[in-house]
Structure formats: C-alpha cells, structure tokens
Write a structure and sequence with these properties.
Number of strands: 2
Oligomer: single chain
Strand order of the largest sheet: 1-2
Distance between the termini: 24 Å
Shape: globular
Helix content: 55-70%
Structural class: mainly alpha
Order of helices and strands: HHEEHHHHHHHHHHHHH
Strand content: under 5%
Length: about 290
C-alpha cells in the first residue's frame, strides 16, 4: 500500500470515527451543563415559519464547552431519583444471568457441533442456526404463550430463559472452535481423558478470546433490549434501565443527558477492558459486521 493510500485511508477512517463519536461527546458535554444553558443552546435561531411543513425551521446554537460545570443532573439521577438505580440493578439482574447462562450453554453446544461426531450433526446445526434468521417479532408470540402457560409473565425468568438458549452464542463459539486443531483432542484422548475433561482443560482455555467477544456482544444486545421487557414485564418497577430512559421528563433535559451518560458507561468500560480479546474473538469466529 502506497503512502498516499495509507494517508487517505487514515483520513477517511478518522472522519468516520469522528462522526460516530460526536453524538457521544455532545451527550457528555450537555450532561455537565445547567438546565438553563441546555435550553438556550437548543432554541431555534433564525426561526422561519414553514407553511408547507406546518412548523418552524432554523438552527440551534450547539456548544461543545459549557460555561459552567454543573453536576446537579448527576445528583438528581443518583441521589434524588432512586428509581434510576433501581432500574440499573434491574438491568444488571437480567443481563448477568443471560450472559452467564448463554456462555455455558453456547460453549458446550459449540464444542459438540465443532468437535464431536454424531449422526445428523451438520443438518441439526443448520436447523439450529435458522432461528438466527428469524426476526425477534416472529418468535415473540410463541414465547409469550409459553411464558403465560408456565406462569412466568411479569417475572425476570420470562426474559432470562429465552436469552440463555439463543443460537447466536453457539454459532460464534462453534466457528471459533473450528480453528482448534483436532490433534489436541486426539492427544488428550490417548492419555485417557474424556470429553468433559477435554472441554474444561483444553477447549475452555483456548476459546477465552471468543468468550470475551461473546460477552461484549451479549452485554450490548441485552443491556439495550426494549421489546422483551416491554412485553413480558407489566410491572414498571421490574423493568430495566433501557425502558426508563424513554420515560424521562422532556422538561428535564439535563437529567436525560446525565442518565444517558451513566447508561452507556458500563458498555464503554467493558469494551475498553476486553478490546483485544473482543477483536481476536470476532476475527477467528468469522463474524463480519
């Protein structure tokens, strides 16, 4: 690759990165502004009445540096409104069991599909993966009916149990395990090791990058879930933080910005912590964005 192409590619990727990061930066900056400053910044300047659209048009006075640093919004969210912390722990109580359960199930099922030989293995895997092609709305009604029959409606189990047995984790770890040489397993079997011992002593240590990548993807997906708790959890005090953000009072925009920053902080910290393992796991699993 020539120097010109490297510089051009770097500039293009830099612009794309800036566009992606800009909304996050604006959210963080606005969370440190006073309510009055936020209201002033988002007032339309140069208003023009559009008769065709039936509304006003103009532009906003977007500021990237606050006049005064204010942490009142964070105090409002964390101290004066304990509902935020309650919803936060509701989200943690849903996401943690789903991740732990799916990693356990997906690692074992992935090992079976990748390394064990049994009749109909590949056909069963194709049928299993076909569930990934179905939109969530297709399985929503059957899941609701099953939860209703089992008496799980308005409980966390109605969300956790389907999440544990998702096909995505099986597919990802199975693809990762295909890169592990079969000679490792054959050597262990010659020493008298069974499949359970091979799985825990050989396979699990080798697929740690894949598990790290799966944890990051599962956390982001389930931390942001909306449809499942909206349908299965009627009690608002049992619902996760992702639903609370949509109900924040429009008149308290500073509180909304502060809550948004706190909401996305766990995802950012998790990604930064597991970045190297996450990239390696995605590369070896063959998943493309």
């Amino acid at each position: 690759m020539t120097l010109f192409r490297k510089v051009s590619l770097t500039l293009v990727m830099g612009v794309i990165a800036a566009v992606m990061v800009f909304p996050i930066g604006v959210t963080f900056v606005n969370s440190l502004m006073t309510e009055g400053e936020i209201a002033h910044n988002y007032e339309l300047i140069g208003k023009m009445f559009d008769t065709a659209a039936g509304g006003e048009e103009g532009f906003v006075n977007l500021k990237l540096i606050p006049d005064w640093l204010s942490f009142h919004q964070y105090m409002e969210v964390l101290v004066y409104k304990p509902v935020f912390l309650q919803m936060f722990w509701n989200s943690a109580g849903l996401v943690a069991p789903i991740i732990a359960g799916q990693v356990l199930v997906a690692s074992m099922a992935g090992y079976a599909f990748a390394k064990l030989r049994f009749w109909g293995r590949d056909k069963l895997f194709v049928v299993y993966i076909m569930t990934m092609l179905m939109p969530f709305q297709v399985t929503l009604v059957p899941n609701y009916m099953m939860a209703q029959k089992l008496g799980l409606l308005n409980t966390a189990s109605a969300i956790i149990l389907p999440g544990i047995f998702s096909a995505f984790g099986v597919f990802m770890l199975r693809q990762f395990m295909l890169h592990i040489p079969n000679s490792y397993i054959e050597a262990a079997q010659m020493d008298g090791a069974g499949h359970l011992r091979i799985f825990y002593k050989i396979i699990l240590p080798l697929i740690q990058p894949g598990i790290a990548g799966l944890i990051v993807l599962l956390f982001v997906d389930n931390w942001n879930m909306v449809e499942q708790p909206l349908i299965f959890l009627e009690d608002s005090f049992k619902q996760p933080l992702s639903l609370y953000l949509s109900r924040i009072n429009e008149g308290a925009r500073g509180v909304a910005f502060a809550a948004s920053v706190l909401y996305m902080t766990p995802m950012v910290l998790l990604f930064l912590y597991a970045e190297s393992h996450f990239i390696e796991g995605i590369q070896l699993s063959g998943i493309k964005g």
